[in-house]
Design a protein that fits this description.
The chain has 270 residues and is of the alpha+beta class. It contains six helices and ten strands, in the order βββααββββααββααβ.
Length: 270
């Protein structure tokens, strides 16, 4: 399997909180969730968490023993929790956490796992790209943000309601009926979106953080088949370059640039 990787920090004055890496037959991508003020809860920070969890995942995937991906993720979450449980308040809802995408080619199958709102794109031999994500965080965020509708921005009332919405969203994290993300509880791994496909049905796969998916769903620069075309022509660096150009022109929601990470896998084993 040939793997091309690229990542770019959203701001030059802040560490990239994404992680991407590969071992033979497997790829890992994480998008760290940075919560303002979390330094008082965890002295290590979000970037440390994503890099530590990503490294643990690659270590557990290296033996290629065919273990269930949810079990691999649960073990890695537990490993990292043990590394800073006694020095940091890891149970607090605002302590470091991360989305996860795992993909593994094993015995003629592609096994995958997603936890929270990053993306996996399957470049199918027939039928065009299949886009897979865990939509529960997006749904929870939309529901929790409903009270903001009609409230004027840049007003004290807006700030008050927004803070209440953020508290409500944190209350749904890693809870039934809410959404799930890698944090301190290994049981979250069992709630991940998982699946398996025959490698013979695929030309390749793409893993993306949601900072990159905005090239399609926020900036409307292209569609998912267009992302595959851009990757084939210019690789992951080309996709991120197109994204950054769109951000310079301004997005519809006024959001700031985010960390952006892509893993592009071709020449899959059969």
């Amino acid at each position: 399997m040939h793997v091309s990787l690229a990542t770019s920090a959203g701001r030059i004055d802040r560490r990239n909180e994404d992680f991407v890496g590969a071992v033979p037959g497997a790829v890992v991508l994480l998008d760290g969730a940075g919560i303002p003020g979390a330094e008082s809860l965890c002295r290590h920070g979000v970037a440390w968490y994503t890099h530590r969890l990503g490294g643990a995942l690659l270590g557990h995937l290296s033996p290629d023993d065919g273990r269930d991906l949810a079990a691999v993720l649960a073990t890695a979450i537990d490993d990292v929790a043990a590394a800073h449980r006694h020095s940091c308040d890891i149970a607090d809802p605002s302590s470091p956490q991360a989305t996860v995408v795992l993909a593994r080619a094993h015995r003629g199958r592609l096994d995958y796992l997603l936890l929270a709102d990053s993306f996996l794109v399957l470049d199918q031999v027939h039928g065009g790209p299949q886009v897979i994500t865990d939509e529960r965080e997006v749904v929870a965020r939309r529901n929790c943000s409903a009270p903001l509708s009609g409230v004027a921005r840049h007003t004290p009332e807006y700030d008050r309601v927004r803070a209440a919405c953020a508290t409500a969203l944190r209350g749904r994290r890693n809870r039934p009926g809410g959404y799930w993300i890698a944090k301190d509880d290994p049981r979250a791994a069992r709630e991940a979106v998982t699946g398996s496909r025959s490698l013979a049905d695929l030309n390749g796969i793409v893993l993306l953080s949601n900072g990159v998916s905005r090239i399609v769903d926020s900036y409307n620069q292209t569609d998912w088949p267009g992302v595959l075309d851009l990757l084939a022509a210019d690789g992951p660096v080309g996709v991120i370059r197109r994204l950054r150009r769109a951000e310079t022109d301004g997005g519809p929601d006024g959001s700031a640039p985010d960390d952006a990470t892509v893993a592009y896998c071709t020449h899959l084993p059969r």
